[in-house]
Amino acid sequence: MARTEIADIGKQAALDRLFEGSGFTNEPTIGLRQSGGCCTAQKLLLEGCDFDLVYTPIKHLGYKAVLCVLGEIYASLRQPAALSVNLGLSKRFCFEDVAALWEGMLAACREHGVKQVGLDMGPSVNGLAIALSACGTQKKSVIGKLPATKNMDLICLSGHVGAAYMGLHVLEREKVAFTGTGEQPDLAPYKAVLASYLSPEIKPGTVSRFVEADVLPSRGYFLTRGLGEAILRLVRDTGLGAKIYLEKIPISSQTFAMAEEIGMDVVTAAMNGGDDYKFVFTLPIEKHDVIRKDFQDFEVIGHMAQPDVGAVLVTPEGAELPIHAQGY
Amino acid sequence: MARTEIADIGKQAALDRLFEGSGFTNEPTIGLRQSGGCCTAQKLLLEGCDFDLVYTPIKHLGYKAVLCVLGEIYASLRQPAALSVNLGLSKRFCFEDVAALWEGMLAACREHGVKQVGLDMGPSVNGLAIALSACGTQKKSVIGKLPATKNMDLICLSGHVGAAYMGLHVLEREKVAFTGTGEQPDLAPYKAVLASYLSPEIKPGTVSRFVEADVLPSRGYFLTRGLGEAILRLVRDTGLGAKIYLEKIPISSQTFAMAEEIGMDVVTAAMNGGDDYKFVFTLPIEKHDVIRKDFQDFEVIGHMAQPDVGAVLVTPEGAELPIHAQGY
Q1: Segments of chain B scoring below 50 in pLDDT
Q2: Nearest CA to A113 among A220, A16, A224, A206?
Q3: Measured by CB atoms within 10 angstroms of the end CB, which terminus of chain A is less buried, N or C?
């Protein structure tokens, strides 16, 4: 495959090529002139800690990295409008690598209506570093109408959890096996969990559907570090308690099967796995009927509670287990 | 000195401690509800490429890193309002290191009226990675009134250039000497150039003074990669030409002396040195008299020209040299 060194063509020429025919212009500072509230979220992804290019196609990585920061914008009940990306590139990376990464990034931008993008790059001693910030906007009338989080608010989850963690587990396992034997692994049986990890998706209508239905969440959280961590943040941010019902947490059949195969507790995968790219929204209990009818893809997994309850997981037998977050 | 591992106290507890008594709360997404235009700038600083902790005190690094991104906000003619920081930390870094870094960051925030801050951290395989994004705001009435850049607009520079590069040169030289002999270098003679590199400053009134005097620049650039690179961006962004007069570029006497000492062309240091943390603003020529009277700290170093002129440096003898940017 062709390999063009960025140092040979120059940074500016490389940036120009990446924007050529993309329909975007490169804006070093992204400015919004909306009259409503704007909001900025930021992520820093580092090779070796946040991703592994041995099993992650670089284009998929670009797509996923953008979703990772747009998810925070949706969780804040804004619509993504602008994205700024800064890359740190070691000498291992050539122009073609960056072009593939950027292709994935632009695909996510197009899908989610991001109108302004900015890209810059610089050298890195080791590996690839990706810093992203995204801006979102929302009408003042919506932001002003967001309800306060109250005791008994419903806690809703936008899809099943734990699958991405299982996908990562398979990839790590096969990486070790491959390094040992050189045999190409057969990954077909694990297609669904692998897709959850490598190609997560976010529905572009995540926020607008709430606005259109006039069912406004009081809070939103984007799940990248596990459901448990999000519930702990929710409790922390609101000063209230939260009860999550174990049997209500949606877990896919393949996640169950994988957990059995590797002898792992499926609840741990679901609560602490991470990389789910799903949302938790809290919604007023008065909207219960509308949610059941028009938001069937959301699962009501629990409800807010008095502060002294803390963050608990209620088992089918009625036992209340305190929710813990996983390490650093 | 005390050394507390972040893994021992946990990330959340570490973040809590860093905000304790700071007067700030940690906001994961920074939201602005201003009615004017908001603007976001982003920087990614990587150890070994963008900074060297052998000679940079970590608290100074924090202060300087924040200025690095706030400078872009001022250059866009906004007032800094919010800052979000993401750190990647290898095991070398303990809580006390992060606390010193954060102390420098908060000092810069206080000085520049940043009201909302967010901090997050995660692991890094190698060294320290610092991602920063800042949001700035400006009244709609100001943004709407910014003039277009025209031929003959004045190009103004906010201070002398080249000194920071000389400071970096001294530090790199003494690092090599120290590694060789173990002798502590005498840096007293280089105090001014060292301060330019290690402790740059930005005046908090950088933008507001223009607004108050009703002398609005058509464009602004923050100098981190050399004056030459900024002039090239200016020409690129406007589609016009630019003439810079060599004898008008302010260079400090210590920069001259250092250039002589190391046998380096002082013009190269001034044009391509980098890390100046100064501003280039273009201002309508009609404002010439006001600028000379009320903006005496600005030096008029040149003017915009017809597109076919390109970006040129005019020597005292009248020769026109094309301006080049330095590498990747």
Answers
A1: none
A2: A206
A3: N
